[in-house]
Amino acid sequence: MDKLINISEAALIAVHALAEIAGFSDCACSENADSAKECLSTQQLAERMGISSNHLSKVLQALQRKGLIRSVRGPTGGYCLAKPASEINFREVIEIIDGPLPTVNCIFRSSKCNRGECIFGDMISSVNTIITDTLSKTALSNFRAKEVTSG
């Protein structure tokens, strides 16, 4: 059976890393960012997230290439948001890492049905639309607000 949505570990790491960066700096960093105050290094992020800095580094490079984060060089440098958290949505982040979200019309890997129409009707397509729309509408800033109020 296939999943309705398949998000890679790397994409989940990207979302988590952006949430960490956004929570640390609370804003997009300027061209003249005070790196000691506004940036998190790859090592700091890896420690906060409990993951390999090598794997995280590859994810951060992809996010930087697409303009979501900016790196600040130097001993107190690191990464900060390149634009406001309200302008970064989860679909964009996932698609930067995994490519376009696939449309799943059948939850079985190979056709199990001997009929012309799916027994689920349009339900699978509707669920896909809901998931895609929700990811598109969910900004990083919305996620952070929920995290703060739920804790």
Which key phrases capture this entry?
Arc Repressor Mutant, subunit A; disordered C terminus; 2 strands; single chain; mainly alpha; 5% strand; two-stranded antiparallel ribbon; 151 residues
What's the CATH class label?
Mainly Alpha
Number of separate domains = 1
The CATH architecture would be: Orthogonal Bundle
Structural class category: mainly alpha
Radius of gyration: 18 Å
Helix content: 40-55%
In spatial order, strands of the major sheet run 1-2
Give me the CATH superfamily.
Winged helix-like DNA-binding domain superfamily/Winged helix DNA-binding domain
- Major sheet attributes: 2 strands, antiparallel
List low-pLDDT spans. 145-151
How many DSSP-defined strands?
2
Q: Terminal Cα separation, in Å?
A: 36 Å
What does this structure look like?
The protein has seven helices and two strands. The chain is mainly α and 151 residues long. The chain has one domain: Arc Repressor Mutant, subunit A (Orthogonal Bundle), CATH 1.10.10.10. It has a two-stranded antiparallel sheet.
